[in-house]
TrEMBL record:
CDD domains: GGDEF
Organism: Photobacterium arenosum
Enzyme class: transferase
Catalyzed reaction equations: 2 GTP = 3',3'-c-di-GMP + 2 diphosphate
Domain of life of the organism encoding this protein: Bacteria
Keywords: Coiled coil
SMART domains with a match to the protein in the record: GGDEF
UniProt cross-references to SUPFAM superfamilies, sorted A to Z: Nucleotide cyclase
InterPro entries associated with the record: DGCcoil, Diguanylate_Cyclase, GGDEF_dom, Nucleotide_cyclase, Rev_trsase/Diguanyl_cyclase
Coiled-coil features, chain-numbered ranges: 308-356
PROSITE patterns membership: GGDEF
Protein name per UniProt: diguanylate cyclase
Signal peptide from the UniProt entry: none
Length: 518
């Protein structure tokens, strides 16, 4: 009985222990499941937080997450956890990378800030960037991107003015080139003589050799001054001439008036003499009728004779005065002739000047002013008659190089010879003008298609065949020609533009070409 009781008490104690063991197992299992949930959550958060820092770490965390999801045996997961821990330890070096990055960002920002003439807003943005201390690699990356943006803005701001400056510099160069050419053209057209002419010629040579911008301004002023001097000189010369002529004319007018007065007085005396001679004749006639014999008439005849002698005397003195008057008139006639001659000379000089205004003094062909006049005239004829009217532009190739290699005198000689050659290939009705530098304009009115092509090709070929020799070297020179015809609603301006386009195509085609643009 006692044994039975003892056994029952052991069973009940075992049962109690079993219940306690079951309870504690349930607690442990519950705790373990809760820990696994926490571990899962932690691993998930770590995956997100560390994403991109290290690809191996990313991979391990992913595997760990999957293993946990699949409720794998924790003992199998533990080695993965150890690897993740090792990788995380490796990430501590990231901290020093971050510090280095942060230093770099700060230094680069400071350097950017020191660039002079940075706009205030940009400086402010750099300051904002510097005020944030990066607390993660991600933040550092954001700051680097920001810094790149700031550098880009600064670079643009600093380089834009440079490009503008370069553009304006190239504009300045174009302007200087144009000014230089215009100035040369003006000097050519001024064609001044004397001391001013010599000085202007010297300036032209300077311009041809190339000058600095500051000298160009000074030369412009010099040209203005010399042009003014030349103008004042011309005006003084004309004034002097006019003074002399008007002085001479006034003197002539005065003496002519005196002569006319004297002539008038002489005429009056002659009339009086004639009247007295008439009276004498009447008295003589009367005496002839009154007296029958000569003796009784002697007394009256004596008185008549005296009167007649006096009349003859007065007649002689009148003749002398008339002779003096004639001599005076003769003198006036010579004087008037001399004056006329002087005005004729002046007229010729003005005509010569007028002609020179339309001539290029170097090549002796027409100049730009004459070209525009003539083109306008031919244009009006074309509108009326609609005959084919051709405009061609001849431009010497690499003329600048020729000047550089053989000097301006050589260049001048080439210009003269080429102008003469082109002129020789033109008809009487054609027109040639040097419109500037090394460029000639040709107007060929009323010219058939094959004829105009033959003529212009002939000019190009003739220039190429010209035998030039400079500094002991045979030099071949070519020219490019652009040509076009007046058509439809064309105006002179449009045609010149088209001709220039054709010329530019001829240059681009390699020079020594004739190009037509219809
Ligand atoms: N000797 C001389 N040279 C002149 C005269 N007038 C202008 N020039 C020069 O003529 C040259 C003209 O050159 P550009 O029209 O620029 O070109 P290029 O050298 O002929 O070259 P492409 O026309 O392109 O084949 C410049 O160097 C001027 O200095 C002048 O009366 N006499």
């Amino acid at each position: 009985m006692t044994a039975k009781y003892n056994a029952a008490s052991d069973v009940s104690e075992l049962k109690l222990r079993l219940d306690q063991a079951q309870l504690s197992y349930r607690d442990v299992s519950l705790k373990s499941r809760r820990e696994i949930v926490i571990l899962k959550r932690l691993i998930a958060r770590m995956s997100v937080a560390c994403k991109g820092l290290d690809s191996e770490l990313d991979k391990r965390l992913d595997t760990l997450r999957t293993d946990l999801e699949q409720n794998k045996d924790i003992s199998k997961i533990v080695p993965h956890l150890a690897q993740v821990e090792r990788l995380l330890l490796r990430q501590t070096s990231t901290h020093s990378t971050m510090e280095r990055l942060s230093d770099l960002i700060r230094q680069s920002s400071e350097s950017l800030k020191r660039i002079p003439a940075l706009p205030v807003q940009l400086k402010r943005d750099i300051h904002d960037l510097l005020s944030q201390a990066p607390d993660s690699l991600h933040h550092s990356h954001q700051q680097i991107t920001q810094l790149f943006g700031l550098y880009d803005r600064a670079l643009k701001l600093l380089t834009v003015p440079v490009s503008i400056e370069r553009e304006s510099r190239s504009k300045d160069n174009d302007l200087q080139h144009k000014l230089c050419n215009e100035l040369q053209q003006i000097i050519t057209e001024l064609d001044a003589e004397g001391e001013s002419g010599d000085q202007l010629l010297a300036i032209r040579h300077q311009l041809l050799a190339g000058v600095e911008p500051i000298s160009l301004v000074e030369l412009c002023l010099d040209v203005l001054r010399l042009a003014l001097d030349s103008f004042i000189h011309e005006r003084r010369h004309s004034q002097k001439f006019l003074d002399v002529i008007s002085g001479d004319l006034a003197a002539l007018e005065q003496t002519t008036r005196q002569t006319a007065d004297q002539g008038q007085a002489l005429y009056k005396h002659r009339s009086e003499l004639t009247a007295e001679l008439g009276q004498l004749s009447d008295r003589f006639h009367h005496a002839l009728q009154q007296y029958t014999n000569l003796e009784s008439w002697r007394g009256a005849a004596h008185s008549l004779d005296t009167s007649l002698r006096q009349l003859v005397e007065r007649q002689r003195s009148l003749e002398n005065r008339e002779q003096a008057l004639l001599e005076q008139l003769h003198y006036h006639k010579n004087r008037a002739e001399h004056l006329y001659q002087q005005t004729q000379n002046q007229h010729r000089q003005i005509e010569d000047l007028q002609r020179r205004i339309f001539l290029d003094p170097l090549t002796r062909v027409y100049n730009r002013a004459a070209f525009h006049d003539r083109l306008e005239h031919e244009y009006r004829r074309w509108i009326r008659y609609q005959h084919p009217l051709c405009l061609a532009i001849v431009n010497i190739d690499h003329f600048g190089d020729l000047n550089d290699n053989y000097g301006f005198q050589a260049g001048d000689k080439v210009l003269k010879i080429i102008a003469r050659t082109v002129h020789q290939h033109l008809r009487d009705t054609d027109f040639i003008a040097r419109v500037g530098n090394d460029e000639f304009m040709l107007i060929l009115p009323d010219i058939a298609e094959d004829e105009r092509h033959r003529r212009l090709s002939g000019i190009r070929e003739a220039i190429l065949q010209l035998p030039f020799r400079f500094r002991e070297k045979n030099v071949t020179i070519s020219a490019s020609i652009g040509a076009t015809l007046f058509d439809d609603t064309d105006t002179p301006g449009k045609v010149i533009e088209r001709g220039q386009k054709a010329l530019s195509s001829a240059k681009h085609a390699g020079r020594n070409h004739l190009i037509w643009i219809a």
